[in-house]
Structure formats: structure tokens, C-alpha cells
Amino acid sequence: MNKTLSLLLAxxxxxxxxxxxxxxxxxxxxxxxxxxxLIDANGGRLATVDRVDQDGSAEIIIDGRLVTVPAATxxxxxxxxxxxxxxxQVLALQ
Length: 94
Hints:
Layout (H helix, E strand, L loop, with lengths): L1 H24 L11 E3 L5 E8 L5 E5 L2 E5 L4 E4 L2 E4 L3 H5 L3
Parallel strand pairs: 1-6
Antiparallel strand pairs: 1-2, 2-3, 3-4, 5-6
């Protein structure tokens, strides 16, 4: 009986660990949307989002060039799309 119980517990632990890893690997919905204004870390307006890449990155045109702002830096704060980057950091992106 103890062997069966141990095997059952081990199976449950492996199943739970697999479920947690699967949930972590599931991509979340992008927070950016075309037409939304992107705000920098200081609260300044950068540009409107032209396109959202499959990974959730926002493409904007700033200073006459296309810049891709990484999805990992984007969030919605008080209903506004915000990046954790400051304007000079955004301008430095390739």
C-alpha cells in the first residue's frame, strides 16, 4: 500500500510541475494595439502604435524611423499603454 501511495504522489507532483511549466510558457495577450498612444517611463508621449508584432512588441514611428519597442517593457497603467523605457532608450533601439 505504501508503494502505491508513493507512486501516486510522485505522479501527482510531476503532473503539477508540468502544468505549471505549461502555464508559464503560454504567451499572454499583447497589451499594445494599433492606434494606441505609447507613453515613456517619464510619462511623456512617444508615438501611436502602428503595428503589433506576433510577440506583442509595439512598432512606432519616432523621429522619422520605425522602432520596435519590446513587449517585455510594455504595460497598461491607468488605462494608458506605457513602456518602462525612457525616450532616449527608445530612440536607441534598432
